[in-house]
Specification:
CATH architecture of the largest domain in chain B: Alpha-Beta Barrel
CATH class of chain A: Alpha Beta
Number of domains of chain B: 2
Helix content of chain A: 25-40%
Strand content of chain B: 5-15%
Strand order of the largest sheet of chain A: 5-4-3-10-9
Structural class of chain B: alpha/beta
CATH superfamily of chain A: Aldolase class I
Helix content of chain B: 25-40%
Number of helices of chain B: 16
Largest sheet of chain B: 8 strands, parallel, barrel
Strand order of the largest sheet of chain B: 4-6-7-8-10-11-12-13
Oligomer: heterodimer
Shape of chain A: globular
Structural class of chain A: alpha/beta
CATH topology of the largest domain in chain B: TIM Barrel
Number of strands of chain A: 10
Number of domains of chain A: 1
Distance between the termini of chain B: 47 Å
Radius of gyration of chain B: 21 Å
Order of helices and strands of chain A: EEEHEHEHEHEHEHEHEHHH
CATH class of the largest domain in chain B: Alpha Beta
Shape of chain B: globular
Largest interface: A-B, 33 and 29 residues
CATH topology of chain A: TIM Barrel
Radius of gyration of chain A: 20 Å
């Protein structure tokens, strides 16, 4: 892989394309998983970023790793804005993943409110990464609203079902000029690899690592799968043929002209 | 249990409606037990419930404070009724449920299915599912980890008062129990809150007995404001209130509302709740919906297992929560799983005892049916049970619990406890225990916005 294969969020540059969620871990395992996966970005629920708690998740994140606070718990754009500002006050900087969810059963993002939140936060100077249901029109609206990337879901959060929305994510990758980060539902390294082969800028996982039998080993497997998928994308995937290749049975007649 | 000897006015529609007499006459007739509110002018709310169309304040007061003077299925004039048919649907489903008709084949089918719908939930609660408890626990644990990871949330309850207008025959706080009564004043509330906050807790549940005069909405709202200044999450477990009252408490910083239905069996409900506004069953049933309309983030549900057929009660509770989630998809749903425990001043109902294995079956069924819902296991249960259930299905536990009034600081005239607790561990001890079980203690998972 090219040594300078980096990517940017706002003005920050990253070489790892695996983003690790932290919400379902024991704190003592977060640090190990981050290191084993080679992750440079770790998400953090602001609602969990306790001030005053003796074992803060903030202390569990290795230094040099970028925290990506999310607005989980927000049900409206205004609530997302308030949580993002709280993250800024906590010292998390201007990077924020917008999550606006008003469905507790499937945790599906509310695209319309997400666009509004993105607009408000971008205007307030945040580098906004909206979590979204992969809809091309909404993705375009997010671009107009000032998003720094889009984060379409592969499947419902925590479902480990993989790239259920692959065809729609593929459209976003083709049509949207921002980085496309596949966010939720990735259950195995092979699925993360596939997303990267498709041209995703990065992949995020949480449950798949947190619920593995050996968390550290799975973290490493994800890191490697994301690298492999990225390399395959850069290399240009070989063609896939459904049948054997016949010699121009339909157009061969053109060669017969004049015989 | 001491069963009431009088005939209950449960089939109230069969009684002749008395002409509405002068208020004083109605009040004395209600006190004398010669009429109940079922005899007064009413209009139907759905098929099971009614609402009183008129009742003078004096008669209302007499009815509230007299055993069996209130019809359990008739809303009082000052109570919001929401209609919508949820009460009818849930009670009809619970009545139609036949746990003994479920077979092992049914259980295998449900456990193999991807999702468990409301029609499958009863299968998991049936006696036929008991031999599958290990498989149920395995599936429950997978769902618990998928939705909540290894997190386990902590909270502690604070009893503000134990005055109560109700007469629930099984409860130590009931109005005739003769226990020591107490109510914290503002300085005592502050002292108790500070004492609890100093232990590191960040979530608090404020409780009162159900006396809306002594523990008024104003009084509770003030306590909530004080709590919200010191805790990141504030819940209340108080008497059911109207939508406007919940909106008021929301503005005072409350995030969630817990109301235990006790039992979803209307005949049993009327026999166990003799007096007070609590006697009005559909008003209690609609409390969670009113709380959500008042802007609350979350609501919690529970029957008190052991008051009636626990399988039917657990079924109704799950369906109740399921209906609420369908109607209010943003609401955070949670369950509690109280079992009958002995209490001072209460009659032990002598209902069918719910064993630990049966309780585990219920809480695994809740998890499999509504995997995203929170589940609290209270200190009524033993440390051994709580530690293990937290790894399988429970997501929230209390620590440092006292169910008396003023016991965190021992400064007020302390009131007696509501029930005996089995797990008396403090917060640090609980945190160590949960870590040993492979769980991560979380003091707060919420930001109030």
């Amino acid at each position: 892989m090219a040594a300078n294969d980096t990517w940017k969020l706002g003005n920050k540059e990253f070489s790892s394309r695996f983003i690790l969620g932290s919400g379902k871990f024991r704190l003592d395992l977060v640090r190990a998983a981050v290191e084993d996966a080679g992750a440079e970005i770790v998400t953090l629920a602001v609602r969990r970023a306790n001030t005053g708690q003796e074992d803060s998740i903030l202390d569990a994140i290795p230094s040099g790793v970028t925290l990506l606070p999310n607005t989980s718990g927000a049900r409206t754009a205004e609530e997302a804005v308030r949580i993002a500002r709280l993250a800024r006050e906590l010292g998390c900087g201007d990077l924020v993943k917008v999550e606006v969810i008003r469905d507790t059963k499937y945790l599906l993002p509310d695209n319309a409110e997400t666009v509004r939140a993105t607009e408000l936060l971008a205007a307030d100077g945040f580098t906004v990464l909206p979590y979204m249901y992969p809809d091309l029109n909404v993705a375009r609206d997010l671009v107009s609203a000032g998003a720094a990337a889009v984060m379409p879901l592969g499947a419902p959060i925590g479902s480990n079902k993989g790239l259920v929305t692959r065809d729609f994510i593929r459209i976003l990758i083709e049509e949207i000029d921002l980085p496309v980060i596949v966010d939720a539902g990735i259950g195995r390294p092979s699925q993360a690899c596939e997303a990267m082969e498709m041209g995703a800028a990065a992949v995020m996982a949480n449950t798949a690592v947190a619920t593995a039998g050996d968390i550290r080993l799975m973290a490493r497997a994800f890191g490697q799968a994301v690298e492999a998928g990225r390399a395959a994308y850069l290399a240009g995937l070989g063609r896939v043929l459904e049948t054997g290749e016949a010699s121009s049975p339909l157009t061969g007649f053109l060669e017969e002209e004049g015989r | 249990m001491a069963e009431p000897t009088q005939t209950e006015p449960l089939q109230a529609e069969k009684r002749p409606a008395a002409a509405c007499a002068a208020p004083a006459d109605v009040a004395s007739a209600l006190r004398a037990g010669t009429v109940t509110t079922a005899d007064l002018p009413r209009e139907p709310v759905g098929t099971r419930a009614y609402r009183l169309t008129e009742l003078a304040p004096e008669a209302l007061d007499a009815a509230i404070h007299t055993d069996r003077a209130l019809d359990p299925l008739t809303f009082l004039p000052d109570m919001d009724d929401l209609g919508g048919g949820m009460f009818d649907r849930v009670l009809d489903a619970a009545e139609a449920y036949d746990p003994d008709a479920v077979t092992a084949a049914d259980v295998r089918r449900v456990l193999a299915a991807d999702t468990v719908g409301p029609e499958d939930f009863g299968v998991l609660l049936a006696p036929a599912a008991a031999p599958f408890l290990e498989q149920m626990a395995e599936r429950a644990q997978r769902e618990r980890v998928r939705w909540f990871g290894t997190n386990v949330q902590f909270f502690t309850p604070l009893y503000l008062a134990n005055y109560c207008e109700n007469r629930c025959v099984y409860c130590g706080f009931n109005c005739e129990s003769g226990i020591r009564r107490a109510q914290l004043d503002e300085s005592e509330i502050i002292a108790e809150l500070d004492a609890i906050a100093a232990t590191g807790q960040e979530e608090i549940l404020l409780l009162t007995g159900e006396d809306p005069v002594r523990s008024s909405v104003d009084y509770i709202a003030r306590a909530c404001e004080l709590a919200a200044e010191r805790f990141r999450t504030v819940g209340v477990e108080i008497y059911p209130a109207n939508v406007a009252d919940y909106a008021r408490l929301r503005a005072a910083g409350v995030d969630y509302v817990t109301v235990f239905q006790e039992t979803y069996d209307p005949a049993r409900y009327g026999k166990l709740h003799l007096r007070g506004r609590k006697r009005i069953m559909p008003y209690r049933f609609e409390a969670q919906e009113r709380a959500l309309r008042g802007g609350m983030r979350g609501v919690a549900f529970a029957p008190l297992l052991g008051l009636a057929d626990f399988r039917r009660d657990a079924l109704a509770c799950g369906l109740h929560a399921w209906e609420i989630q369908r109607a209010y998809p943003a609401a955070e749903i949670s369950f509690s799983c109280p079992r009958m425990r002995p209490a001072a001043g209460a009659v032990t109902p002598g209902g069918p005892h719910v064993s630990e294995a049966q309780l585990l079956q219920v809480v695994c069924a809740y998890r499999i049916f509504m995997p995203f819902a929170g589940l609290t296991v209270s200190s009524r249960e033993s440390a051994r049970f709580r530690d293990h259930v937290a790894t399988i299905t429970a997501t929230k536990v209390s620590a440092g619990v006292s169910t008396g009034v003023g016991e965190h600081t021992h400064q007020a005239d302390e009131g007696d406890d509501q029930f005996e607790i089995a797990d008396t561990r403090d917060l640090p001890t609980m945190c160590v225990a949960m870590r040993e079980m492979g769980l991560e203690p979380v003091m707060n998972d919420h930001v109030l916005v």
